[in-house]
Design brief:
The structure holds two protein chains of two kinds. By secondary structure, chain A is α/β, with parallel strands linked by helices. Chain A contains ten helices and twelve strands. The longest helix of chain A has 18 residues. In chain B, helix 4 packs parallel to helix 7 and helix 5 crosses helix 7. The two termini of chain B are 27 Å apart. In chain B, 33% of the residues lie in helices and 25% in strands. The relative contact order of chain B is 0.14. Classes of the chains: A alpha/beta, B alpha/beta. Chains A and B meet through helix 6, helix 7, helix 9 and helix 10 of A and helix 7, helix 8, helix 9 and helix 10 of B.
């Protein structure tokens, strides 16, 4: 059996929409609507989808920044809802790290790099100044910077270097799981490769698990072991990265892959056509009945508007939610 | 071969700041033909947008100035025009689409009003004629039920629709040249695919020449016939898209391509270009890429390479390419 670090079971997050003087609830935004996933130790799970798919809400739920409407998160087999606040602080939060998308807004511009990296250490651990100092230098070197950089301020660094500092901060407490929310999409093309390689090296060295949120499929294929494709708060396809990219089954996955494939001029000669979806993602306030994707699906059948396709296993852990597959 | 509509020759645009001169664009030359899409590719701060703004003569003066070169639009050197004459070219002859529709549209006017503004100003139309033009611009960008959408405010539209409205404003006066500065970067993947297909249609209908600024080779392959790769204020390689993908010659071009993960290939480790682009205030002598170049030699450190045409229409500035 695989070594599962974190498991999400049937997670839902609905936000109320309020209106009027009395702030009556007039509807619910179904940001995340019944998703389940597992993250294995030392492996990467990526959540992929367009904006509004519920990726970030899921990540926030794992980081306990959002309270779930329903569902359970199991960490090393233990249900987080049974943890007391003190237990969460001592046993769960220090095991997590997080790297945000934009390294220009994720750091306090008035703090020195030393203090940025030291913060999680100071909050969570008792240690001497020397220990702290040597840990900071160690972390900086791990991410490809040097110990002298500790005395500088964030504005003195380029985007790629800042993202390295963010990674160092996430690594400070030797976490088991790091949540990476679009870790490279704010960076320049030539710098992205550096950061992705760094993240992969760290994963190998420390047997880290990653929960990656991304919309760039090529990045996802390069980074992940398991991939979940999300659409309007639900997982429409789930499986091992290689399997999923080689044999996509859901029409939405196919369209996403088609849209992200590098178009070469030769393709036009060969008559390779891109799948162009019609319309846009419907509002999560009022998702379509039946399969949520049927309004844009090129292969939709009449029953897709009525019956909700369940996420079925089609073999080898490859799951898909489509009436046709 | 169709007619050349824009020819930029040895363009130099500098920014004069207290800390020194920033050579944002330093000797850029290229041309665009009617009905053609020319891609300008490069990382941030390599001078793509400053090149675009120079063509429109919209650099933030007095800090930013065009210090040399020529820009011919349909035979007229734009740099010799007076300010008033130049205003007549903007909008009517050249227009531009910016990256983020949320910041390029005015939130307190309806989209119809915003399209009408350019129609009134540049075409001198009035009354019902304006509405007709507005609707036909919205139709060109395939916006459903334009009569209704024109009364909406930007916040009522989705990101993809907003960017179409920006496209409608740009196309409303039938320009000869359109500069699109990362128009799809803020859009989702499937919406981006829609938008690019739409723009190819618009181009077929209007025969407009497009300069497409992007950092994404995927978009280049999809949209452009020819492409110029920029690095630190210079175009280091120009060629047809086909040749760039098949036989990239400049070490920067090939390194950039290798460092982008490909969806159709499984890779264990990405190639990464060491270091970072140089500061434009303090450029290295010789070739600008040599500190990061895997094949640099002594001569690269000392002298700047000249542009060489290695095959028809394929220009490279590199000592190692002959």
């Amino acid at each position: 059996m695989a070594d599962v670090l974190l498991e999400g079971r049937d997670l839902t997050k609905h936000y109320p929409v309020r209106k009027g003087i009395l702030q009556r609830t007039i509807g619910w935004v179904r940001a995340v609507d019944g998703i389940s996933f597992t993250i294995e130790r030392g492996k990467t799970l990526s959540l992929v989808g367009e904006s509004g798919a519920g990726k970030t809400t899921t990540a926030k739920a794992v980081l306990l920044q959002e309270k779930l409407t329903s569902g359970t998160i199991l960490f090393e087999g233990k249900d987080l809802s049974h943890f007391s606040p003190a237990q969460l602080k001592a046993e769960y939060r220090p095991r997590l790290g997080s790297v945000q998308q934009n390294p220009w807004s994720s750091m306090n511009p008035r703090m020195k790099v030393r203090n940025i990296i030291a913060e999680p250490l100071v909050v969570n651990k008792k240690q001497t100044k020397q220990q702290l100092q040597s840990r900071i230098s160690e972390l900086l070197e791990q991410v490809g910077l040097s110990a002298e950089h500790a005395e500088n301020y964030p504005h003195e660094f380029s985007g790629g270097q800042r993202q390295r500092i963010a990674v160092a901060r996430a690594m400070a407490l030797n976490p088991s799981l790091v949540v990476l929310d679009e870790p490279v999409s704010a960076l320049d093309v030539s710098i992205r490769a550096q950061i992705m390689n760094l993240l992969k090296d760290l994963q190998e060295q420390y047997n880290l698990s990653y929960l990656v949120i991304a919309h760039n499929l090529a990045t996802v294929r390069y980074m992940s072991h398991t991939v979940a494709i999300m659409y309007l708060g639900q997982i429409v396809e789930y499986g091992e990265a290689e399997e999923l990219f080689e044999r996509p089954l859901h029409p939405y996955t196919k369209a996403l892959i088609s849209a992200s494939l590098l178009t070469l001029p030769e393709d036009e000669d060969k008559g390779v056509e891109k799948i162009i979806l019609r319309g846009e993602m419907p509002s999560p306030l009022n998702p379509p009945a039946g399969c949520r994707f049927h309004t844009r699906c090129g292969e939709a059948m009449p029953e897709c508007g009525q019956s909700v396709p369940p996420l079925r296993d089609v073999g080898g852990g490859h799951k898909v939610a489509c009436n046709k597959a | 071969m169709s007619k050349v509509i824009l020819r930029v020759e040895d363009l130099r645009s500098f920014f004069f700041t207290r800390k020194g001169v920033v050579k944002a664009v330093d000797g850029v030359s290229f041309y665009v033909c009617e009905g053609e899409t020319f891609g300008l590719v490069g990382e941030s701060a390599c001078g793509k947008t400053v090149t675009a703004l120079s063509i429109l003569r919209l650099l933030p003066e007095p800090a930013g100035q065009i210090v040399g070169g020529k820009i011919f639009l349909d035979g007229t050197n734009l740099l010799e025009l007076s300010k008033e004459e130049m205003r007549k070219y903007r909008g009517r002859m050249i227009s531009m689409i910016l990256q983020d529709p949320m910041t390029s549209l005015n939130p307190v006017y309806t989209v119809g009003d915003q399209i009408a503004e350019s129609v009134r100003l540049h075409q001198g139309l009035q009354g019902e004629k304006v509405d007709e033009e507005v609707i036909s611009a919205l139709r060109l960008l395939k916006i459903p039920s334009p009569e209704m959408i024109m009364r909406n405010y930007p916040f009522q539209l989705s990101g993809g629709m907003r960017q179409r409205v920006v496209g409608a404003i740009a196309m409303s006066c039938h320009p000869r040249l359109l500069i699109a500065d990362e128009p799809t970067t803020a859009l989702d993947a499937t919406i981006q695919a829609q938008y690019l297909t739409l723009f190819k249609d618009v181009q077929k209908q209007t025969n407009v020449a497009i300069i497409f600024i992007t950092h994404d080779f995927g978009v280049v392959g999809n949209m452009c016939q020819r492409v110029g790769v920029m690095y630190a204020g210079k175009i280091v390689e120009t060629a047809t898209t086909r040749e760039i993908f098949k036989t990239p010659k400049h070490p920067y071009t090939s390194a950039l391509m290798d460092s982008v993960p490909r969806l159709d290939q499984k890779g264990d480790r990405l190639y990464s270009i060491k270091g970072q682009p140089p500061s434009l205030r303090d450029l290295p002598p010789g070739c600008r890429f040599f500190p990061r170049c895997p094949v640099a030699e002594d001569i690269c450190r000392q002298k700047e390479p000249a542009e060489v045409e290695i095959s028809e229409g394929h220009f490279v500035s590199c000592w190692k390419v002959k």
